[in-house]
Amino acid sequence: IRNHTWSYPLLWFFVILAPTSSFVPVADLAFEHRLYLPLAGIIALVLLLGYLLLGWVTKLLEVDLSATTTGMFHRLQRFLTLGFVAFVIVSFTVLTVLRNSDYRDEVTIWQKTLEQAPHNPRVHLNLGNALLHRERIDEAIRYYQRAVKLKPDYAKVYYGLGNAFLQRREPEKALDNFNVVLKLWPNNASVHNQVGLIIYHKGNVDQAVFHFRRSLKIEPDNHLVHHNLAIALAKQDKLDEAIGHMKQAIQIEP
C-alpha cells in the first residue's frame, strides 16, 4: 500500500489484532471482543471512503454550475459527512447501551449467550455456575445436566454437580459426581479434598486420609487441606503428624 492515508487504518487493524491471533486451537469458534479495538481502523477507513465518495460526487455535479451553486454543494458535502458520522455515533451508542444491559449480572449474560449458542456445553456450565453462586441450586443442576448430555466427558460439569448436591445436602449424589471428576481429572486437588471430607463424615477415615494426602501432593500449600488432614490423623491417633499438619495450616494462613 503506497498511499499513507489508506495504510494507517489498515495497519492499525492488523497491528492491534496481531497479539491476540493464534494458531493454537481454542475452545471457541470466535472471540468477538478481539475485534473491538482493531475495528476502529476499519471504521476510520469507511469514513474516509465516504468522504472521498462525496467529494467525487460533488465534483461531478460542479460541472457548468455557478460559484454559488458550487459553494452550496461543498456545504452539502460537509453536512452529509457530519450527518453520517452523527448517525453512526448515535446508532452505536444506543446499541452499546442496550448491549450493556446484558452485562448487568453474571446470570443474565450467560442466559443471553445461551440464546445464541444453545448447544454449547460450556455456556450451560457457566450458567449453572452463575445460578449456583446465587443459590438457585435446582436451576443450576438442570443446566449442568444439559451440559452433560451435550458433552458426557466434561469434568467441570460433574464438579459443578457435586458442589450443587453438596449445597442441597445430598452427599451421596455429590460423591458420585466427584468420583466421575477424579476419573476424568485425577489431579484435581479440590475434588480430592471434597471426596475426603464426604467419606470422613461417613466414617471411612483411612480413605479420607488418602484423599487429603493426594490433594496436598498436588497443592501442598492449601491450609484447609492441612487442617482436614490433621483432624483425620488425630482420629487415627497419629497425634504427632496431626500436630505437624495443623502447624503448617497455621503457618500458611495465620
Automatic annotation (TrEMBL):
InterPro entries, per database record: DNA/RNA-bd_Est1-type, O-mannosyl-transferase_TMTC, TPR-like_helical_dom_sf, TPR_rpt
Keywords of the record: Membrane, Repeat, TPR repeat, Transmembrane, Transmembrane helix
Keyword Nucleotide-binding: no
Residues spanning the membrane: 6-24, 36-58, 78-98
Start and end residues of each DNA/RNA-binding domain: 183-239
UniProt xrefs under SMART domains: TPR
Protein known as: DNA/RNA-binding domain-containing protein
Species in which this protein is naturally found: marine sediment metagenome
Classification of source organism: unclassified sequences, metagenomes, ecological metagenomes
